[in-house]
Amino acid sequence: MAVLRLIAALLMLSPILSLAFSPENPTNQRILVLLDDLAIKSSHSIFFKSLTDRGYNLDFKLADDPKLSLQRYGQYLYDGLIIFAPSAERLGGALDLPAVLDFVDSGHDLILAADTTTSDLIRDIAAECGVDFDEDPEALVIDHTSYAISKTDTGHTLIVSDNVIDSKVILGEKKLEAPVLFQGIAHSLNPANSLVLKVLSASPSAYSANPKAEISNPPALIGSSISLVSVVQGRNNARIVISGSLDLFSNKFMKSAVKTFGSSVEHGKSGNEQFVSELSKWVFHERGHLKAVNVQHHKIGETVEPATYRITDYLEYSVEIFEWTGKDWKPYVADDVQVQFYMMSPYVLKTLSHNNKGLYSTSFQVPDVYGVFQFKIEYRRLGYTSLSLSKQIPVRPFRHNEYERFIISAYPYYGGAFSMMAGFFIFGLVFLYHK
Amino acid sequence: MAATATTKDATGTVLSAIILILVAVLAFSIRLFSVIKYESVIHEFDPYFNYRVTQYLSKNGVYDFWNWFDDRTWYPLGRVIGGTVYPGLTLTAGTMWWIFNSLNIPLSVETVCVFTAPIFSANAAWATYLLTKEVKGIGAGLTAAALIAMVPSYISRSVAGSYDNEAVAIFALVFTFYLYIKTLNTGSLFYATLNALAYFYMVCSWGGYTFIINLIPMHVLLCIITGRYSSRLYIAYAPLVVLGTLLAALVPVVGFNAVMTSEHFGSFLVFIILNVVALGHYIKRTVSAKMFKVAITLVISFGMVVSVALAAILVASVAASPTKGWSGRSLSLLDPTYASKYIPIIASVSEHQPPTWPSYFMDINVLAFLVPAGIIACFLPLSDASSFLVLYIVTSVYFSGVMVRLMLVLAPAACILSGIALSEAFAVLTRSIKFKQDKSEVLMDESNNGSKTSQPEKDKEIVRERPSKKSRRMEKENVEKVLEKKEVKQWSLLLPVEASAVGILLLIVLGSFYVVHCVWAAAEAYSAPSIVLSSHTPEGVHVFDDFREAYAWLSHNTDIDDKVASWWDYGYQTTAMANRTVIVDNNTWNNTHIATVGTAMSSPERQAWEIFQSLDVKYVFVVFGGLVGYPSDDINKFLWMVRIGGGVFPHIKEPDYLRDGQYRIDSQATPTMLNSLMYKLSYYRFTEADGKGFDRVRRTEIGKKYFKLTHFEEVFTTHHWMVRIYKLKPPKNRLRGKNKKRSKSSSKGGKSSSWKKQEKRNPWH
What we know:
Chain A is an alpha+beta fold. In chain A, 22% of the residues lie in helices and 31% in strands. Chain A has three domains: 18-284, Rossmann fold (3-Layer(aba) Sandwich); 289-396, Sandwich (Immunoglobulin-like), CATH 2.60.40.1930; 407-434.
């Protein structure tokens, strides 16, 4: 309930946000793009164009623009933020680390790209989101087995990876057609952190080190523990993409042909464009954003929602779940949505059945325990926003007149009581009037 | 002669009626100090629950009240109010409210609740009059009524606003005793039935009804043992047990307890004995003496075997149950150390502690000295009725010695016996003045005059004895004998005039001391509503209204379904005043739940947060007196939380919170203590208040002065810091990585460092 309310509140709160998930005006979102250098605007134009084509309004600013501001009068001016300014030591205007984090914490999305030179600010933003870039400022990801054959790259830092996360929600229905080119720095994730996910990871032979220096110590980050691109979904469903490479998004990488070392296949075009645009669809909630509405419950045979149930009542519970497609809400179909009837622990746990139109329902008997119960749905699936609904409902014991009036097994006692009364009456008569 | 007697009688009746009305006015008005000094408001803790229940009753009717399942307390378990509450008080006030409203007197429920206790204390005064009159005549009755109207012990529980069960229960208690004595004196089945009904009312009103159902059987047993068995005794007792038990079982909260718990067994045992004795008397009347002797040896030898077997079964079955069939509160009556040894939750309540000697003087004042005289008066002569009073005072003195709360039961007994003592003393003293004069007139023929002068007196005696004599037809001679004896005694009790005059004077002085003390107690000691506090400062009276401030904040600033956790003391007030769901409250029915809250309060922040989160708690508040010196705050109750929590969750250990057996919060305190949630919530930002962190209750500087809260945030602190409300922080939106934040960047961006250190100032302070 609280989460529903929160979502509702978020939807209501800002008029800009409310545009975000309405079918009338599906993708009229404003996104602030922060750049080191306005040249990036043209060198990464394919990526930006794919966004504007999908209806986003991009607002390009230099990272040290003194008039930068994410919000005005307590309202956010933007729905998303793209920081393509890996070397920015500080952001201009009212923007700083806490402002960016507050932006995310209030439910907005972020794309962050690092590069061979990454400032502490960018590293801090990433660290706050659970992503740790390699501490060595000179280090790059090096892979001597799966690198792209190129004329300029001699240190095998232009690497190739098709080791992507297996999730259709995050990377779309289509399989990645070609491997992804990557040149940048490595980062690692804390395995205990359930909010971050590796989307693109390096091959087992990769390591992170300074390509210009001799390696004296074994590198700290090696193998597939290196993450190249990661995503974060906050508890408030704000989504973040963190990439160790800015070039990943660049026109040059997208257009270039890929020939992996040791492989005979040459792809005419790298997988970067597909990878990046699908990822941007996910990060801007065009996929995998669920909403649960219209939670209803009532006794079987009735339609009105009661204020309280009685123990051993039979009830029906239903909820509608939809997924945002980027244009409108379409029914969400899954067979693993469960509802709990919960009081300190689940007394009933049932899988909801659905009608393929987004309506999930089930019916069950209230347990023979009174107390304040909750209908709880805790639905967390990879890539999807988490659904956490709870609706409080008291369950009362029987009323005094809801018990059986006569119990069959007690008939001997009834008989005993009445025969006793009759016997006493007769005894009284005899005692008093029989001389 | 007869005519004058009637007029005199009539004047006496009118006079005593006027006195009784005045006593009622006194009883009512002496309890209004709280309204005049503070305001018309419900007091303390339990009364708030009763008030809330009464509101529900007046809004939804009796049936809904009976079936009320309250989902706003004991979250998430809920509480079946209808089945766990003594409904007497609520029904009484609800009926009064209904009557007023149907008479078009639009009183609010709160007003009726506030004034229920004073009204019923007037009733209790009348009941005391009736009871004492039944034992020792009108004079003693009036004195006792006047005494009970202002006895401090009773005032403490029945000032206006003190809307608790005891308010009506004392009336019910005394009235039940009156009807029992009345039945005993008259042998009337009518009064016996009334007695059962009065007992029913008492059962409805208060758990203290077990006192009645044990005291009366004890008296019956006493009468049987001392050879005072009569058919009146049978009529007085048998209907009470049969009807009373049936009626008691109708009260949902008692139910089958009326026949299944040890507290009631005594009455059944005595009932059996009484019937056996009655049968014996019947047989004795019908058969010859010789036959009777044979029969009795037969019955006794057979009966012994059976009763030994029965007793063995009983003992075995009782011993099989863990608490020996006794509830904890009753066990702590029999063994005063039981509760403090085994049940911390009972021992933690201050009114369950044994009283100190000064509290006797405070609560019953001079009555404590008059009671022995009253006991002696009860033995001159000892009747069935007066032996009951003696038994009543003896048992209630014992019980009051076990629990402060039961001083309340002692108070009526002390008043009655003191009333008797005072009245007897006055009678002796005034008589000796009166007859001294008579004697000097007719000094010559003493033997004739003796009987002559005492004639009116004797008339009076006979008149007074008339109603009881009707019933004592069989013992007529006996009564006559008593009267003659009395006459003789009257002569022997004459004192010198001067001594009598001085004695009367002294008694009046004693009485005035009592009155002065009672008025003082009513005005100063017992009128504080405890939710509004006041202190006298040189500038005038300073009022601390922090509790209501906090509850009002909760009710205005939190969602209607939010759960608020606090120590159980404040549960009733939170539900009644803030209308928010609480986890535990003053009805301490679920020890585990209370222990959970106690554990949370004694745990470090993170564990506490997890416990509260699992209970869906959104807000936590603590009562803190360190700033203004309010001693009954949560830090002082904290050891009880530790004990109660540790009783269920053994990882909480009391010694961890004590330094060398001493409870302290200063720099010597243990780390466990300083890291407990209670310490943190109480002393968070306390140093900002006075700069030193000096706790005015514990009279020491606190041990840990600067600390941050990670899982709780302060949302409201009242004017005097007495209630501090915290909100549970939601789980973090993001999880941080391992990399430490570089100092470089934080020093660079001036703003980024300031946002964390930004001091939250309390805007209400």
